[in-house]
Design a protein that fits this description.
elongated, single chain, 15% strand, alpha+beta
């Protein structure tokens, strides 16, 4: 009886194990047969959407990535031009000459207005040689920066030009992001202030609001300054009036041509030097006369001092030498007149 009951129990246990294995296999087959990207399979394998942190990695690993949309024309153009969204600051310095200063200065101001810019600084100086010089700081729209530089050469004789650019995109967008953060912070503080009931909390929140307002003002001012530099380029212009425009230096083809150019250039420079010297003397002849008088008085004073140091006999050294020579000659004559002691007597 006991053996029969034990055999039945063992058979029941084996049957239960077999059914359990079949059920697990069927469940696994169902999960394998379902689509790999379906949310139901992920839900079943994790036991629901709240299965923990492992669910996210498993779910995203099973979901297929959508096909990438083709880029539009705007993105394509931006890829072709890497500076399309960059914040660039352009600046330049120009030195120019002119023989008609008034006309050239008027044309320069007209050119600034025609390009949509303005003169930030203008100054005119007059030197002692009769020529004038002007210093200008022009703010020109960045889109017309190159056009303005080319147009200056049509107005005046450009002798030197330098231009530069600076990319401030990183600093600009960093300020922009910080400003957005501060504005969001301001909205939250105002919402907290509206719900605050304790006086201590109100004072603390108002202090934080004041500090945030200060930060917003500082960041806004910095962005406006950057916008002004980006939108309008800065160009420094030095305009000088001359009697003759300087030639553009070019390399002569041969040694003889270089030598000839050097001789002619030296002659021209010497003539210019004489002209400048004459003009300088004409402008400052009074000072030159005073200086010449001072030099003459100083020379006379030095000569009188030398005469006083020489005493009443300015040529005493020379006279002393003559007297010494004369004494030696007289002594020699006296020795010649004296009889020789060694000579025998008659």
């Amino acid at each position: 009886m006991n053996r029969k009951f034990g055999a039945l129990a063992l058979a029941a246990l084996l049957a239960a194990l077999t059914l359990t294995a079949c059920g697990g296999s069927a469940k696994g087959d169902t999960a394998a047969a379902s689509p790999s990207g379906s949310m139901d399979s992920a839900y079943e394998m994790e036991g629901g959407y709240g299965g923990g942190e492992d669910f996210g990695g498993l779910f995203y690993s099973q979901v297929q990535e959508p096909e990438a949309a083709p880029p539009d024309e705007g993105e394509t153009n931006a890829g072709e031009d890497r500076l399309a969204n960059a914040k660039m600051i352009y600046s330049a310095s120009i030195e120019a000459q002119t023989m008609e200063f008034d006309t050239c200065a008027a044309d320069l101001e007209t050119l600034v207005e025609q390009t949509g810019g303005y003169l930030e600084y203008a100054s005119v100086h007059s030197y002692g040689d009769g020529y004038r010089s002007g210093s200008y700081t022009a703010r020109i729209p960045a889109a017309r920066f190159t056009l303005f530089l080319k147009s200056v050469g049509d107005i005046a004789h450009v002798t030197w030009q330098e231009k530069s650019s600076e990319n401030i995109s990183e600093a600009y967008y960093d300020l922009e992001s910080r400003l957005t953060t501060q504005r969001t912070k301001m909205e939250r503080l105002q919402a907290l202030l509206a719900r605050a009931e304790n006086m201590e909390d109100i004072i603390t929140i108002e202090s934080a609001i004041a500090e945030t307002e200060y930060q917003i003002e500082q960041l806004t001012g910095s962005l406006r300054h950057y916008d002004a530099l980006v939108d309008f380029s800065t160009i420094q212009i030095q305009l000088r009036e001359v009697a003759r425009l300087s030639d553009v230096e070019t390399t002569p083809p041969s040694f003889s041509a270089r030598l000839s150019a050097a001789f002619s250039g030296g002659l021209v420079n010497f003539g210019d030097f004489l002209q400048e010297l004459s003009i300088f003397a004409a402008y400052n002849w009074i000072w030159l006369v005073i200086l010449a008088g001072i030099v003459l008085l100083a020379a006379k004073a030095v000569r009188r001092r030398a005469e006083r140091q020489a005493g009443p006999f300015p040529n005493r050294e020379r006279r002393g030498f003559s007297l010494g020579r004369k004494k030696r000659e007289d002594a020699n004559q006296e020795d010649a007149k004296k009889p020789d002691d060694k000579q025998p007597k008659d």
